[in-house]
Design a protein that fits this description.
Elements: H1 14-24, H2 37-51, H3 57-64
Length: about 70
Protein backbone atom coordinates (compact mmCIF):
# COMPACT_ATOMS: atom_id res chain seq x y z
CA UNK A 1 0.00 0.00 0.00
CA UNK A 2 1.51 3.34 -0.94
CA UNK A 3 1.75 6.08 1.64
CA UNK A 4 -0.77 8.32 -0.14
CA UNK A 5 -3.45 5.60 0.15
CA UNK A 6 -3.04 5.36 3.92
CA UNK A 7 -5.59 7.24 6.01
CA UNK A 8 -4.83 8.04 9.63
CA UNK A 9 -7.59 8.13 12.23
CA UNK A 10 -7.65 11.91 11.74
CA UNK A 11 -8.53 11.45 8.07
CA UNK A 12 -10.86 8.45 8.17
CA UNK A 13 -13.86 7.66 10.32
CA UNK A 14 -13.76 4.70 12.66
CA UNK A 15 -16.35 2.95 10.48
CA UNK A 16 -14.11 3.27 7.42
CA UNK A 17 -11.20 1.85 9.40
CA UNK A 18 -13.34 -1.06 10.64
CA UNK A 19 -14.47 -1.82 7.08
CA UNK A 20 -10.87 -1.92 5.87
CA UNK A 21 -9.82 -4.23 8.68
CA UNK A 22 -12.78 -6.51 7.96
CA UNK A 23 -11.92 -6.58 4.25
CA UNK A 24 -8.28 -7.51 4.95
CA UNK A 25 -8.89 -9.96 7.81
CA UNK A 26 -12.38 -11.32 7.22
CA UNK A 27 -12.18 -14.24 9.68
CA UNK A 28 -10.43 -12.62 12.61
CA UNK A 29 -11.93 -11.28 15.80
CA UNK A 30 -11.14 -7.81 17.01
CA UNK A 31 -10.77 -7.05 20.70
CA UNK A 32 -11.69 -3.51 21.67
CA UNK A 33 -10.32 -1.98 24.85
CA UNK A 34 -10.99 1.35 26.52
CA UNK A 35 -8.40 3.39 28.36
CA UNK A 36 -8.91 5.25 31.58
CA UNK A 37 -10.10 8.71 30.46
CA UNK A 38 -7.63 10.57 32.69
CA UNK A 39 -4.65 8.59 31.39
CA UNK A 40 -5.86 9.03 27.81
CA UNK A 41 -6.09 12.82 28.26
CA UNK A 42 -2.57 12.95 29.72
CA UNK A 43 -1.30 10.99 26.74
CA UNK A 44 -3.04 13.27 24.23
CA UNK A 45 -1.66 16.35 25.98
CA UNK A 46 1.90 14.96 25.93
CA UNK A 47 1.59 14.29 22.19
CA UNK A 48 0.29 17.84 21.72
CA UNK A 49 3.23 19.30 23.65
CA UNK A 50 5.73 17.47 21.41
CA UNK A 51 4.17 18.79 18.23
CA UNK A 52 2.93 22.30 19.06
CA UNK A 53 3.79 25.39 21.04
CA UNK A 54 3.22 25.20 24.79
CA UNK A 55 -0.30 25.77 26.03
CA UNK A 56 -1.61 25.31 29.58
CA UNK A 57 -3.60 22.09 30.02
CA UNK A 58 -6.88 23.89 30.76
CA UNK A 59 -6.53 26.07 27.65
CA UNK A 60 -5.67 23.02 25.53
CA UNK A 61 -8.56 20.99 26.99
CA UNK A 62 -11.11 23.76 26.45
CA UNK A 63 -9.93 24.30 22.87
CA UNK A 64 -10.00 20.58 21.95
CA UNK A 65 -13.24 19.66 23.74
CA UNK A 66 -15.44 22.69 23.04
Amino acid sequence: MSRKNYLSSNQASMIEIAKRIHKLFRYTKIIVTFRNKGEWLKSLYKIYLRSREFKEFDDWYNNVFK
